[in-house]
Specification:
Blueprint (H helix, E strand, L loop, with lengths): L8 E8 L7 E8 L5 E7 L4 E7 L2 E8 L6 E6 L5 E6 L3 E6 L5 E6 L8 E4 L2 E8 L5 E6 L10 E6 L15 E6 L5 E6 L4 E5 L5 E5 L6 E6 L5 E6 L3 E6 L4 E7 L5 E6 L5 E6 L4 E5 L5 H4 E5 L6 E6 L5 E6 L4 E7 L1
Antiparallel strand pairs: 1-28, 2-3, 3-4, 4-5, 6-7, 7-8, 8-9, 10-11, 11-12, 12-13, 14-15, 15-16, 16-17, 18-19, 19-20, 20-21, 22-23, 23-24, 24-25, 26-27, 27-28
Length: 330
């Protein structure tokens, strides 16, 4: 078939059927003290677990507890040593991935913490998609006992010409930052994708094209291409700096819930409510050949996908409580 023209593929490595006691909603990777890639998963069961891939399965390294409601997002600092989790209990918890000690607990106003992301060139700064605050919030997550947990800034999502802040449904759900730390993107429930200058904190522009919740965002390694995951069933590729739509990746049957970019800049993974994980080879000039593979190891909605720091694995977390890990072959 034309879809086999790309050599890019995912090979199943591990499938942990009951990785959690309830649906798995978040996935990320960090680094162990000996430099290994560790998988992190967060769940409706209120826990965050770290895993090491072994042979044909996953071995649990640590269970991190402290949240009192489901975990919606996980992020690791660029060096993989610090992890942040955001949950429905309005808390963001930050801990050391090696000692498992809690560093900071940020108590957010109700419904004002969704996705989280670390700033690459400022690892003591955590970006938070601020939900009902209709903004991105920047928090201090340093080891400074006085400053840790305090707000460093707010990037407000502007209203469009015909709305007021009361009428807008610009609930901030997703956040991403470019690898060079210069651009911040925020996706909202009304389909808005806002781009900010991370250095000056200025709002630059909206990216047009979605009219439904944008639940996932990922910058490519080129620091300008932004991929979106939206409930309209599409993943869009934008030139975030010049606000042009570069490409659309259709194919999921239903909501697209997550998106991730490989560090090689060629592979993009999406996941959706259709329980599928799709691998896209963005080098392909033919639309029919862009989808290199569709993996369906899980039976319910796949909420998140993440490439490992060494760029050789892809993990996905599903509502069916399972976690799947694939070998990524570019």
């Amino acid at each position: 078939s034309p879809a086999e023209a790309s050599a890019m593929k995912l090979s199943p490595l591990a499938h942990q059927a009951d990785a959690h006691d309830d649906g798995a909603w978040a996935v990320a990777w960090c680094k162990s003290s000996d430099g290994d890639d560790l998988l992190l998963t967060g769940s409706v069961d209120e826990s965050v677990r770290s895993w090491r891939a072994t042979g044909d399965g996953l071995e649990m390294v640590h269970e991190y507890q402290g949240h009192s409601l489901g975990v919606v997002s996980l992020a690791a600092s660029p060096d993989g040593a610090t992890v942040a989790s955001s949950a429905l209990d309005s808390q963001i918890r930050v801990w050391d991935a090696r000692t498992h000690e809690t560093r900071v607990i940020i108590a957010c106003p109700p419904a004002e913490n969704w996705h989280v992301a670390f700033v690459p060139n400022s690892p003591d700064t955590l970006l938070v998609a601020g939900g009902a605050s209709k903004s991105v919030k920047l928090y201090d997550v340093s080891s400074d006992t006085v400053k840790a947990g305090t707000e460093r800034g707010v990037l407000a999502l502007p209203n469009t010409a015909n709305e007021t802040s009361e009428t807008s449904s610009r609930f901030a759900q997703s956040v991403a930052v470019s690898d060079d730390g210069k651009l911040i993107a925020c996706g909202a429930a009304d389909g808005a994708v806002a781009i900010f200058d991370a250095v000056t904190s200025k709002f630059l522009h909206f990216l047009e094209g979605h009219n439904a919740p944008v639940r996932g965002l990922a910058f490519a390694p080129d620091n300008k291409t932004l991929y979106t995951a939206c409930d309209d069933g599409h993943c869009h590729a934008y030139d975030a700096a010049n606000k042009s739509l570069l490409d659309a990746l259709p194919g999921h049957k239903g909501w697209v819930l997550g998106v991730a970019c490989a560090r090689d800049g060629f592979g993009v993974a999406t996941c959706g409510a259709d329980a599928a994980v799709k691998l896209w080879d963005v080098r392909s000039t033919s639309q029919a050949e862009k989808c290199a593979q569709t993996a369906s190891a899980q039976t319910e909605a796949v909420w998140g996908v993440a490439f490992s720091p060494s760029d050789d694995k892809l993990a996905s977390a599903s509502d069916d409580k399972s976690v799947a890990v694939y070998q990524y072959v570019p």
